[in-house]
Amino acid sequence: MSWILFTLGATALNAVSNFIDKFLIEKRVRDYITLTILGGMVAFIFGIVVLFFRNFPIYGTNQMILILLAGISMEMGLIPYYKAISLDDISRVVPVFQIAPVFVLILSYVFLGERLTLPQFIGFWMIITGAYILSLKKLGKDIFNLRKSVIWIILASILWAIPSVIFRFVTIEINFWDALGYEFIGAAIGMLLLFLIPAIRNRFLNEIVRVEKSAYGAIASNEFIYLIARMLGFYAIVIAPAVSLVSVLGGFHPLIVLIYGIILSVWFPNIIKEDIQKATIFIKILAIVVIFVGVWFINV
Q1: What is the DSSP letter of 252?
Q2: What SS3 state is found at 197?
Q3: Model confidence, pTM
């Protein structure tokens, strides 16, 4: 049963990373484009370090291109992600990101010809329903009055679903550390592509002088936490009876984020302050339960 501890450990660390992201965008960096580029720079350093200890392994051309593309897509997904969490509570944003598996199903159906099973179809609509509940500004008659963060969450979910589909094209087994290292390098390439755009480059250069020095340590720490979470998640998959069990248990991520949010808002409001009114918490829990059941259906 140690796979359960690894999975929960990875999930808990991912939740910590979410709140560090929120802290950075609200208290330290503030500009989501600048934070994305800084994250890409740190990812490059981590990627080089990981690949150095792996002696910079080389795989087939197609595999290398696909892994790098996955990293680029992950980096680009940070832009709408940071924008979304700058607009809303992290405990409201993270559960909606559970729609990413929905986009994986759609992309796999369109590009890979995979068939949807009945449980997956049910899970598909349950996740959509839960995400919709969280996306409403207020429960009531105005069912189309959605929160500003929704469109950004959807865009980030699509960009983060693409790597999952890309890796299905990889026909050989790739070492976990190699894949992680090249994914970091891909993120750095994505950062360079952003930097080549004059408007983004000028925006970054104007904003970087305002960034507090403490932000760099927080960004590096966040990348390290992400790396540890990925490692724990990987080992959970290796030793678990089935990958689907790890995916389902990972569905507790939104609940852990909600718990963290309540704790921080009550005892450390100077760091993170969320809406913890009883009605709001009830809506969040209701939506999280619906989404979790949807994730379970998709993975059965």
Answers
A1: G
A2: coil
A3: 0.89
Q: What whole-number distance in Å separates Cα of residue 247 and Cα of residue 49?
A: 29
Which residue range forms the structural domain that includes residue 79?
Answer: 2-299
- Distance between CA atoms of 296 and 205, rounded to whole angstroms? 45
Ordered per-residue pLDDT tens for the chain, 300 residues: 688 899 999 999 999 999 999 999 998 898 999 999 999 999 999 999 999 999 999 998 888 999 999 999 999 999 999 999 999 999 999 998 888 878 887 887 777 777 778 888 899 899 999 988 888 766 655 555 678 888 899 999 999 888 877 776 665 567 888 988 999 999 999 999 999 999 999 999 999 988 888 888 999 999 899 989 988 988 887 788 876 778 888 889 999 999 999 999 999 999 999 988 888 899 899 999 999 999 899 886
What is the distance between the terminal CA atoms of the chain, rounded to a whole angstrom?
19
**Alpha-carbon distances, residue 289 vs 117, 261, 263 (angstroms):** 22, 17, 20
- Tally of domains in the chain: 1
DSSP 8-state assignment for residue 148: T
Which candidate, 123, 130, 91, places its Cα nearest to that of 255? 91
Question: What is the spatial distance between Cα 300 and Cα 296, in angstroms, rounded to a whole number?
Answer: 6
Find the largest Cα–Cα distance for the chain. 60
SS3 state of residue 261: helix
Task: Report CA-CA distances (Å) from 59 to 63, 66, 71, 182.
Answer: 6, 11, 16, 11
Rounded Cα–Cα distance for residues 101 and 133 (Å): 18
- Looking at residue 146, what DSSP letter applies? B
Contact call for residues 174 and 67 (beta carbons, < 8 A): yes
Name beta bridge partners: 146. 136
Of all helices (H) and strands (E), which one includes residue 123? helix 118-135
- Taking alpha carbons only, the member of 91, 93, 88, 83 closest to residue 35 is 83
Q: What's the CA gap between 38 and 109, in Å, rounded?
A: 35
Look at residues 152, 208, 187 and name the one whose alpha carbon lies nearest to residue 70. 187
